[in-house]
Design goal:
alpha/beta, Aspartate Aminotransferase, domain 1, 2 domains, 3-stranded antiparallel beta sheet, 13 helices, 12 strands
Amino acid sequence: MTTPIYLDYNATTPIDPAVVDAMEPYLRDHFGNPSSDHEYGYRTRAAVQTAREHLATLLGAAPKEVVFTGGGSEANNLAIKGVAYALRERGTHLITSAVEHPAVAGPLRFLERQGFLVTTLPVDADGLVDPAQVAAAITDQTILVSIMHANNEVGTLQPIRAIAAIAHARGVLVHTDAAQTIGKLPVRLPDLGVDLLTVAGHKCYAPKGVGALIVRQGVPLEPLIHGAGHEGGRRAGTENVPYVVGLGRAAVLARERLPEYQERVRALRDTLHRHILERVPTAVLNGHPVERLPNTLNLSFPGVNAAALLAAIRDQVACSTGSACHAGHAAPSQVLLAMGRDAGLAAAALRLSLGWATTAPEVQQAAEVIGTAVYALTR
């Protein structure tokens, strides 16, 4: 059986071979606890520190601002709940958007059940939050704004720098989930102006099960996992050394490859879009036409149910009808509904996300497969 063309890099990426090579010694030989006061511990502690420095360098942060976690979801929970618990005596109001990933929306719903107030801002037809609406939503009880850097379904990039400036002028902290932008675009803490930033390893060619929260120095944060003083007292638990090393190596690769990645993958994405439009002229682009991830193409095919389309092509093209976290559900995308798409178009959307290994022949073949399937389903 032929392996399908993989166009679901926003769901997860393969581990880069160089990342595997970096991890292997810490899976096979270097097993020491980084907290141990002997040679075995010194070696793994140094490896964790080196990984911390690599990730900090990529993101323009200080190494001590890096908190390693078990993944992006944990990092989002730590950011949102950690700030809420630390500042609840000052205020209980948080602001977010209508297109957040469940790893942000879920913790906020949890906090609402505990008495916190959450304001969910709408987005426009391109999926953008209006910074003026952020300003209007801030009250003297607001303690945190949490808005993603780029949407995982449509790729739209949010005006995080403008939002952060507005929030900081009112003394409000800002968190952004940058899981989808690390390694795809320049992501620098000073440029974005945020206080907390989420990293997910498996979105940037590192393993699943490792991530990080970047916490600007001085930001109050209540730990969610209590125990010993790991990660500067912000996340207890013996470090997952091999995976942390892998994330550090992935950060180095991202920094080295970023200019080439943006140019090559964006060109392939636009070629894919053009080839699909040649076969399905009625396809509708979802997401901002310019301010969008360079690898992401989300298209609605009028008159086609995306679940049926996915079933028709899955043996030849591996992609998604939306967020991977919603796999198996044929309901219209909540992100597209929030953007004002009608239920028909929202249920007709296919997300195609490219990566390092995507080739020009794969793009051509995928467009042919999708075009043929859409034609068959609309006859």
